[in-house]
Amino acid sequence: MTAAMTVQGSTQHGLRTHEKYDRLVAAAQAAPRLKVAVAHPCDQASLGAVFEAVELGLIDPILVGPKAKIAAAAEVLGKGLDDFQIVEAAHSHAAAEAAVDQVRNGQAEALMKGSLHTDELMAAVVRREGGLRTARRISHCFVMDVPGHETALIITDAAVNIAPTLEDKVHIVQNAIDLALALKVDPVKVAILSAMETVNPKVPSTIEAAALCKMADRGQITGGILDGPLALDNAIDLGAAKIKKIASPVAGQANVLVVPDLEAGNMLAKSLTFLADADAAGIVLGARVPIILTSRADSTITRLASCAVASLVADAQRQRLGLPEV
Fold first, then answer.
1. What's the CATH architecture for 15-133?
2. 19 pLDDT band (50/70/90 cuts)?
3. Rounded-to-integer distance, Cα 293 and Cα 116, Å
4. What stretch(es) of the chain map to CATH 3.40.718.10?
5. DSSP string computed for 235-264
6. Cβ neighbours of residue 33 under 8 Å, at least 6 residues apart?
7. How far apart are CA 112 and CA 91, in angstroms?
8. In principle, which of 115, 141, 213, 256 could form an S-S bond with 43, CB 3.0–4.6 Å?
9. By C-alpha distance, which of 297, 250, 320, 280 is closest to 146?
10. For residue 141, what are the β-bridge partners?
């Protein structure tokens, strides 16, 4: 596959293309290869994703885990490991810590989840001593390719912060805006979602939405245009926004959707995935480096898009700090 090729996936109605993800992959191919520490890639799905991303020129991986298990997975895939750097780690917990150490010692500029639980990897990331914490709260974003929707949608947070406070949401929103900017979204239009578009004292998420918008007005959140509260329909559909007579530069055309809590975000993302045949590339932000979260159920293009997103985030960080590539 080249930058110009189109990836097709099966749907209930046949084959469909993935133009939004194709554009992400092509943009990432133009950036330096991302040096990624892959934690415990010991099954066909996780190691296969690594091979696919390497073949496309997206990543330069460091495989961290038990070498015998990694080799066994590679053999099943019919692939060799001669060109790969492998860091021995006895089990998944040790692999997570060793992968984080690769970042801390400057050998890697991103993490990638292999065949271990997300909690194991994130525990190593957020540990007080030797982790990858920053002043920013860690949060998750889905970059979703929804058939029939013109642009990719960033949904946050559907995987890390269970019941975020207003202070947490400031970080969640800023992480999402920074991601959108790294993906060359311009302008970044952020909808703070609730069940309605009016402030209702009985619905706390509407009050927090209004507060976040005012914080953006005061420069406490930067880089994007915020509006909220907005219901999902009038956040992404211009017709719905016009019916409700909402005059806003965001309503009907949001490209970032900030949900009230993890439950709402998870249901929204999975509804789009399973009912609208959307793909959901996942990334964790707010740590020292981007963290690629893939699932065994992810399609090939979704796994590649997750790598591409992380590559573009790392490249934006590199350019902002004036750093050479690793």
1. 3-Layer(aba) Sandwich (3.40)
2. confident
3. 11
4. 15-133, 134-286
5. HH-HHHHHHTT---SSTT--SEEE-SSHHH
6. 57, 58, 59, 60, 311, 325
7. 16
8. 115
9. 280
10. 283
Determine the angle formed by the axes of helices 166-182 and 300-321, rounding to 10 degrees.
90
Contact status, residue 252 vs residue 137, Cβ threshold 8 Å: no
Select from 140, 246, 136, 112 the least CA-distant residue to 191: 246
Question: 3-class SS at 155?
Answer: strand
Structure pTM? 0.91
Separation of alpha carbons 235 and 212, rounded Å:
16
Rounded distance, CA 99 to CA 85, Å? 12
Gyration radius of the chain over CA positions: 20
Which backbone phi and psi does 227 adopt, to 5 degrees?
A: -150, 145
pLDDT value, residue 3 = 38
Place of tokens 């949608």: 153
The model's pLDDT over 126-139, given as tens digits with 9 standing for 90+, comes to 998 889 999 999 99
Q: Is the dihedral of CA 192, 195, 199, 200 positive or negative?
A: negative
| Residue type at position 323 | L
- Supply φ then ψ for residue 169, to 5 degrees: -65, -30
Query: CA torsion 294→295→300→303, rounded to 10°?
Result: -10
| Tokens describing residue 36 | 């990624």
CATH of domain 134-286: 3.40.718.10
The pLDDT value recorded for residue 9 is 45
Q: What is the pLDDT of residue 197?
A: 96
Amino acid present at 312 = L
Average pLDDT over residues 79-105: 96
Residue 318: how many CA atoms within 13 Å on its side-chain side? 20
Is the separation of the CB atoms in 264 and 294 below 8 Å? Answer: no
262: left (phi over 0), alpha (psi -120 to 50) or beta: alpha
Buried b (16+ CB within 10 A) or exposed e, 31-61: bbbbbbbbbbbbbebbbbbbbbbbebbbbbb
